[in-house]
Design a protein that fits this description.
Strand content: 25-35%
Distance between the termini: 18 Å
Structural class: alpha/beta
Helix content: 25-40%
CATH topology of the largest domain: TIM Barrel
Shape: globular
CATH superfamily of the largest domain: Metal-dependent hydrolases
Length: 380
C-alpha cells in the first residue's frame, strides 16, 4: 500500500522545496508531487503541516543511550539503543564498541547480528570497532587494559559473525598501515582516531585506503605550524571525511564555525559518540569498565576528567551547526546521512528523491523529530 506524506518542506542535499507531497511505496520514494498536483485519494495520507522533511539521519558512531551500552553484549541493549535513536530521527546507526576483550567483542557481534535478523527500530547498518588498536598516549575514555596490536584475524572472526562497517585505529602503531591495507581489501572503512600520527603518516595510510578521521580534533595530533598533524590533515585534505561531535563541548562553537568555513559539507559527517547516559539525568555511569560522571550533560572520567563520549542527541547536533554556521540547510543536511551512506556504501539513502529508500524524518521548527519512517513504514 502506498502512503502520501503531504504538505512537506523538503530539505534534501542542495534542494529545498515548499509544500510538496511525497508518495512512498514498497520501501522507496515512488513520486514527489508538486504543490498544485492532485493526489491519489485512496492512499493513506499523513499531513506534515509544513514541517521539515529530511532524509533519516545516519549515526555511524554511537556507543549507547538510555542506560544501555553496545558493549553490554546483549540484543536487548542493541534494541533499546535503536529505539532511542528513532526518537532522535536516526534511521540507521553503527553500534560502536569500546576497547574491550576479544571475547566481549565476539559477544557484541552476535548481539548485533541477532538484532539485525529481527529488527524493530533503527537499522544497524554495521558494527563500528573503536579500538582496540589505538595509541596508548591517546586513550581518552578507552580502557588501557585491553589495548592490543592490530590483528586482521580478529577482524575476520568478527566480520564472519556480523558485518563490520568501520574500524577506528591509530595508523602509526606497529601494524597499523598493514591493517588499513587489509581492511580496504575487505571493503571495511578505516578511520584514524585515538592517534598521534603525523601528517606524513596520515598521507601514507591514505594511500592504502584510509578515508575517515574519528571524532575530529579529539584525541588526535593537534594543529601546529611546524607539524600540522591530523587536525591539519582534516582541514587541508580534499578527500578525507571528518566525523564531528557538534555538542559545543567536544568542539566549541568557534571551532565548528572554522571547520565549516574551511571544509566542504561534502566531507563532513555528524556523529554523536553517545554513551550510556544519553537521554538520562546526570549521575555516575560505567563506560567499558571505567567510571564516568555526567554533570550538566557532560560526561567525564572520574579518574582524570577526560571527556568520555557525549550525551548528544543527533537532531540537536544538526540544530547546533545550523545556528553556529548559518549555512543553508540543504548544504548542512549532507552531513547527516548522504555522506555516511556514500562513504560506507549503504545504498540509496540520504536524499528525498524518487528511487531512494524511504528513510525519512520529519522535524518541527525546533529540530525535534515528530515522525520517522524506515523503508516507508512509520515507526514514530
Amino acid at each position: 500500500m502506498s502512503t502520501i506524506i503531504k504538505n512537506c518542506k523538503v530539505i534534501s542535499p542542495d534542494k529545498e522545496i515548499q509544500k510538496f507531497h511525497i508518495e512512498v511505496e514498497n520501501d522507496y520514494i515512488k513520486k514527489i508531487y508538486k504543490k498544485n498536483e492532485s493526489l491519489p485519494k485512496s492512499f493513506e495520507t499523513i499531513d506534515a503541516n509544513g514541517k521539515m522533511v529530511v532524509p533519516g539521519f545516519i549515526d555511524i558512531h554511537t556507543h549507547g543511550a538510555m542506560g544501555f551500552d553496545v558493549c553490554d553484549g546483549t540484543v536487548k541493549s542493541i534494541e533499546e539503543i535503536a529505539k532511542a535513536k528513532i526518537n532522535e530521527g536516526v534511521t540507521s546507526f553503527c553500534p560502536t564498541t569500546l576497547t574491550v576483550s576479544e571475547e566481549l567483542l565476539t559477544k557484541v557481534a552476535y548481539s548485533v547480528e541477532e538484532y539485525k535478523q529481527n529488527r524493530k527500530y533503527a537499522k544497524a547498518c554495521g558494527l563500528h570497532l573503536e579500538g582496540p588498536y589505538i595509541n596508548k598516549n591517546c586513550l581518552g575514555a578507552q580502557n588501557p587494559k585491553f589495548l592490543r596490536k592490530p590483528n586482521i584475524q580478529e577482524i575476520l572472526h568478527l566480520n564472519s559473525i556480523t558485518k563490520i562497517s568501520k574500524v577506528t585505529l591509530a595508523v602509526e602503531v606497529d601494524g597499523g598501515i598493514d591493517l588499513v591495507k587489509e581492511l580496504t581489501k575487505l571493503n571495511i572503512t578505516s578511520s584514524c582516531g585515538h592517534s598521534a600520527a603525523t601528517y606524513a603518516e596520515f598521507k601514507d595510510a591514505q594511500k592504502y585506503g584510509l578515508t575517515h578521521l574519528t571524532h575530529f580534533c579529539n584525541q588526535m595530533t593537534k594543529l601546529h605550524h611546524r607539524e600540522i598533524g591530523l587536525v591539519g590533515a582534516g582541514l587541508l585534505d580534499k578527500e578525507v571525511l571528518i566525523e564531528m561531535i557538534c555538542d559545543k563541548i567536544h568542539l566549541v562553537p568557534e571551532m565548528i564555525q572554522l571547520i565549516f568555513n574551511t571544509k566542504s559539507c561534502n566531507l563532513i559527517a555528524l556523529i554523536t559518540d553517545s554513551m550510556v547516559a544519553s537521554g538520562l539525568n546526570d549521575g555516575i555511569y560505567d563506560l567499558g569498565g571505567l567510571e564516568v560522571k555526567v554533570e550538566n550533560g557532560v560526561a567525564r572520567l572520574t579518574k582524570d576528567g577526560a571527556i568520555a563520549g557525549s550525551t548528544l542527541l543527533y537532531n540537536r547536533g544538526l540544530k547546533n551547526i545550523y545556528e553556529v554556521t548559518e549555512k543553508p540547510l540543504p548544504e548542512l543536511i549532507k552531513t547527516t546521512s548522504l555522506n555516511q551512506a556514500k562513504s560506507l556504501k549503504l545504498g540509496r539513502l540520504g536524499k528525498i528523491e524518487e528511487g531512494y529508500l524511504a528513510d525519512i524524518t520529519i522535524l518541527d521548527e525546533n529540530f525535534t523529530p515528530t515522525d520517522v519512517f524506515i523503508n516507508g513504514k512509520r515507526v514514530k
